[in-house]
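Please fill in the sequence for the structure shown.

STRUCTURE ENCODING:
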């Protein structure tokens, strides 16, 4: 076993934990154990090469597997597994007065309300309210809501749990996944397409099955009402246009375990106007004819940019979130152009100038259907 690389040894340890005392394994069993740890063929093939093949697809791993040490028992003493602890505090989202129901909100709410295990994968461009929608559905239903922000470093310890030092004692601290399972909560895996194969530890859980906590031997059963909802900027196939550089390609078997997928678009102009107006109110801006007009022009401006973006005319887009940022900035400076300028300053200079020029035309009442509008953004397209 010492001659094998670390990843192969980890696979053997996983097999030993899953099947105590077993020596003969089928190819499928080895691969499933490896995939649950996020490993691939380059990690399990050395095991097959070093093992004794005793039949078609069957290998004897007795020379490779280190037996699991059993608790030492004498007349009075039993070696105990580390104690498991979990944060007992329950987390609930609060109703946000700026939220406007739209899109797939009612569908998501119905799924949560059903108490069924029904994993959902929601994709869409950033800033179009995916996470907010799930949060507010839970808030409306007074359902416990646990959000986990996924990144390339997220691993089994972050999700399932790991050993921690508490008051001088080593204890197993249960992670958010186990907490959600035990409490029957909604587990939101936010930006799941930033994950690596380390999240394959969730594959069995995505089938609604109990999970064996390898480090303690405890089996955690999902309580009624437990469900998993994932949000992402892509559909798990990577970012074809390079817009989301951290987006990864998610294993197809993992994606297949989501019952439904929802592709969330930006809201309609009527819905977006309600959202923007509610944010003006949130930031203490008096709603009058001037603000109503400003809102309509912001939405028209964003709509033109989005249409051009979808036609591959520009590389940037104005999201609903960006419009709300402009509203907040306006509430501070009371200056339309300054608010817009500050909130799009992160774009490259040519894009920013094209967007500002476009808003100037929208603000001055230029007919939205005239060729001049397209020319403003087409001039930027020529720069790429």
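FILLED IN BY: designer on duty
SEQUENCE:
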């Amino acid at each position: 076993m010492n001659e094998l690389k670390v990843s192969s040894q980890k696979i053997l340890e996983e097999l030993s934990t899953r099947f105590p005392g077993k020596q003969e394994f089928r190819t499928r069993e080895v691969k499933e154990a490896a995939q649950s740890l996020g490993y691939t063929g380059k990690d399990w093939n050395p095991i097959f090469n070093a093992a004794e093949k005793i039949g078609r697809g069957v290998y004897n791993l007795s020379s490779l597997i280190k037996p699991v040490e059993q608790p030492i028992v004498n007349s009075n003493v039993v070696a105990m597994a580390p104690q498991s602890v979990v944060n007992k505090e329950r987390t609930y989202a609060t109703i946000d007065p700026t939220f406007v129901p739209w899109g797939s909100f009612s569908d998501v709410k119905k799924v949560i309300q059903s108490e069924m295990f029904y994993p959902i994968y929601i994709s869409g461009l950033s800033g179009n309210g995916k996470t907010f929608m799930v949060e507010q559905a839970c808030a409306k239903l007074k359902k416990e809501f646990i959000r986990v922000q996924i990144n390339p470093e997220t691993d089994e310890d972050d999700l399932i749990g790991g050993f921690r030092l508490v008051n001088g004692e080593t204890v197993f601290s249960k992670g958010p996944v186990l907490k959600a399972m035990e409490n029957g909560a909604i587990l939101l895996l936010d930006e799941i397409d930033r994950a690596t194969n380390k999240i394959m530890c969730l594959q069995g859980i995505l089938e609604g099955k109990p999970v064996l906590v390898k480090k303690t031997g405890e089996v955690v059963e999902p309580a009624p009402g437990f469900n998993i909802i994932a949000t992402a900027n892509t559909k798990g196939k990577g970012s074809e246009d390079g817009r989301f550089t951290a987006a990864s390609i998610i294993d197809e078997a993992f994606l297949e375990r989501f019952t439904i997928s929802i592709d969330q678009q930006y809201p309609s102009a009527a819905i977006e106007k309600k959202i923007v107006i509610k944010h003006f109110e949130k930031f203490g801006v008096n709603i009058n004819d001037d603000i109503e007009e400003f809102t309509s022009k912001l939405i028209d401006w964003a709509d033109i940019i989005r249409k051009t973006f979808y036609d591959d005319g520009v590389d940037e887009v104005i999201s609903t979130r960006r419009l709300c940022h402009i509203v907040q900035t306006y509430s501070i400076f009371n200056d339309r152009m300054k608010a817009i300028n500050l909130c799009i300053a992160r774009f490259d200079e040519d894009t920013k100038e094209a967007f500002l020029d476009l808003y100037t035309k929208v603000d001055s009442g230029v007919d939205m259907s005239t060729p001049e509008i397209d020319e403003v953004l087409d001039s930027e397209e020529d720069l790429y």
